[in-house]
Amino acid sequence: MNAGTNDSAEGSAAAGAAAAQQLDPEVARKIAQVRSAVRENFGKAVMAMMMLPRYRSQMLADLQHLVLDPMLRDRLAIAYPPKSDAAPAPDMAGFAIWASVSEEVDARIREQVKAGVFPVRLKGEDWTSGPINWLLDVVATDKATTAAVIASFRQVAKSGELRLHPLITRLVEPELLEKMGARKTEPAAQPG
């Protein structure tokens, strides 16, 4: 009788494992939506970056650390134009690439900035390693759109200190950055 109980328990465990392998249809639908959104946003971000001379010389392998790593860690703040009846599904207006880093990663970013490295390279785990917010780049078509993307970004990164890559200071008017409470880092060394 004991053996029958054991067989029954093993059968229940096997049935439970099989059921766990099959996803609930609602969960499967949500996973498919997330995958689709990641693919769509990745494509939009890459297309926008292709329009900017500062990214045209990047290698295909660089897309991992430039777009995918920050996107998967919610460090790509995408801004959309106001909704209108004429454009039910608008393209993005632009996006901000940012990180919330530890003091150690902050020091590495500062070293890269001082050495004139662009784009800044971070490891996957660095993007969300601490409370120090860095705005590393804004990808947009013009100064007005860049300003709108930065304003939207500040709503995303509401708390904590905000540090800027020196590139940002050339993309918009200094007054806008001062209103946001942004702080400049030391400028990158100029090649000479």
TrEMBL record:
Gene Ontology CC: cytoplasm
Domain of life from the UniProt record: Bacteria
Keywords for this protein: Acyltransferase, Cytolysis, Cytoplasm, Transferase
Predominant cellular place of this UniProt entry's protein: cytoplasm
UniProt-listed Enzyme Commission number(s): 2.3.1.-
Pfam families: HlyC (PF02794)
Keyword Membrane: no
Protein's GO biological process: killing of cells of another organism; toxin metabolic process
Keyword Nucleotide-binding recorded: no
Enzyme class per UniProt: transferase
Family that this chain belongs to: Belongs to the RTX toxin acyltransferase family.
Function: Involved in fatty acylation of protoxin at internal lysine residues, thereby converting it to the active toxin.
Name recorded for this polypeptide: RTX toxin-activating lysine-acyltransferase
Organism: Falsiroseomonas bella
